[in-house]
TrEMBL record, chain A:
Source species, domain of life: Bacteria
Protein name per the record: Sugar ABC transporter ATP-binding protein
Organism, scientific name: Halostreptopolyspora alba
Residue span, ABC transporter domain: 8-244
Recorded GO MF terms: ATP binding; ATP hydrolysis activity
InterPro entries: AAA+_ATPase (IPR003593), ABC_carbohydrate_import_ATPase (IPR050107), ABC_transporter-like_ATP-bd (IPR003439), P-loop_NTPase (IPR027417)
CDD domains, sorted: ABC_Carb_Monos_I (cd03216)
Amino acid sequence: MADESPLVELRGIRKSFGAVTSLAGVELTLGRGEVLGLVGDNGAGKSTLMKVLAGAIQHDSGEILVDGESVRFASPAAARRKGIGIVYQDLALCDTLDVASNLFLGREPRRGPFIDRAAMHAEAGRILRDLHVRVPSTRQEIGRLSGGQRQTVAIARAVSTQPDVLILDEPTAALAVAEVEQVLRLIADVATRGVGVILITHRLQDLFRVCHRITVMYEGRSVDNALVSQLDTNSLVDMITRANATDADKEAASDH
Amino acid sequence: MTTDTGNETGRPPGSAGDEAGPDNERGGAPPVDPDGRLARLWSDANKPTLLMVGVTVLLFAMLGLASPDFLTFANLSNLATQIAPIVIVGVAMTFVITSGQIDLSVGSTIAFVAAISAELLVAGLDSSLVIVLGVLAGAGWGLVNGWLAAYNNIPPFIVTLATMSIIRGVALLRTEGFSVPIDNRLLLAQIGSTDVLGFSIAAWLALVVAVIGAILLNHTRFGQYVTGIGSNEESVRRAGVNTRRVKMFALVLTGAMAGLAGLLIAARLGSGSANSAEAFELTVIAAVVLGGTNLFGGRGTIVGTVIGAVITGAIANGLTLLGMSPFLTPIITGCVLILAIWLNLRGRDIAQLTGHLLGRRE
Ligand SMILES: Nc1ncnc2c1ncn2[C@@H]1O[C@H](COP(=O)(O)OP(=O)(O)O)[C@@H](O)[C@H]1O
Ligand SMILES: [Mg+2]
């Protein structure tokens, strides 16, 4: 990407919660059609970084560029307008609302001042069918679904907003093998359509399956960055566990 | 995996991934199962509310047997007038409780609007103007509650406990505790004494408020977000909704409806008093919770609230007919509130509830 600006670029993102510094200067780039694996220990700051990018929390300092344009998301709605879609690690569903209501939360189809429930359920059915998501009914309360079903509904919600950037924060944690396969296919599929995908996962095999590049986070910093084609399982594990990082505390210098 | 709608097609759960082709995915479609209609109605129905319908029928039968006057049209019409303010405020309170909040200041707002509107009438203002001002004054207090609770993150329980004292205090200060008579030739007094088709205007207004409330709760984005916020506020916020505004508006609703109820109570009594509607908030909360609206939020039912109001009203009405002391009513209301909360908790303990009301935050 010589002269063309990347889809997303994060520069020196910092975020503290009171005395806790969650992000201490993170660099990250994402290209169009690229699948980026974001890895690191629990507590490394991956989810916090993605919440910043999705507008769910506001960073203290640093810069977010989308399509080369510097942006600052005051709210999740602002990020969504810029084409950011996200599946949160905690899914962000409302248990007492039904499947269709959760799918369309914040963007319910309306007829006049009223929610067009018929259209909403029909469209929800179509979306879930297209993504091969199986739920007993779109009128089922989300709280009564299994963990895997909830997760697939959350993924369907993010994908159905047709984002330019799709963030998946441990999207397969509660899924059965076949469902994981489906999500991986979905990721590859949207990426070929030009969507940039950020995938957070602890499953190494998934990283090798769909990711083009891996960015490693450690204690609130981005510390490593490598093309998947240049990695094997051992070197990836070394990267994540920072087996070679003892000699010199190599900062995020190799990030570009 | 819950399959209690009976809609599953028999494939094992977890086989979602196999997709040999779109044509064998029929089972993958969320089915519109014609046979499931009854089952769906049953599963959609609010069980506590259904239970309350049964309780109401039983209660009416018992009171009818105990007192021959209870089931007369005149008494039922009278009952409708008595419960009208409870329904009007209760409908708004349903939104507040469903959104995970509470409003303890409604009784004080009723007293404030009743007293101040009577004063304004004495000062010579036109009734129609006073009615508008009364509702706006209530909404104004609601705005204060909402701004403090939603925008300044003070738990609504605390905010409205404080404004409960402030609002009635202002009214007492202005009227020095005297009740202000309303000239019965004025339009507002006429409203309190006119019947339409055998029912008071207050009763008809309560019906209108309940219908609008049900539509608002079940068929608009506002109602959807109220329910969603009560279920998981952060999820609704992350979906791009201005959750603070929604929560504030719910409290504006209770304020405005308390204002309307204050006008109707002053109209019926022919006077406005800063001492009226004592402990009214308890009656309203009892009615709402008794009807099946979840005290933790996330689940609300307007029909349930109306039923809850009918039950609390019928008990008070029946006691009077049976010649019992009217001072029994607050005792019964308190007992009903405890019973309602006990039914409502269903497994959760009271410590959780206290934590919730006092604003345990994420
Ligand atoms: N709202 C918050 N308040 C305080 N600390 C937080 C908050 N959110 C995240 N943190 C802290 O930030 C750090 C990074 O967390 P997180 O982004 O969830 O890590 P990861 O997703 O990589 O496991 C953790 O130490 C966590 O405790
Ligand atoms: Mg995380």
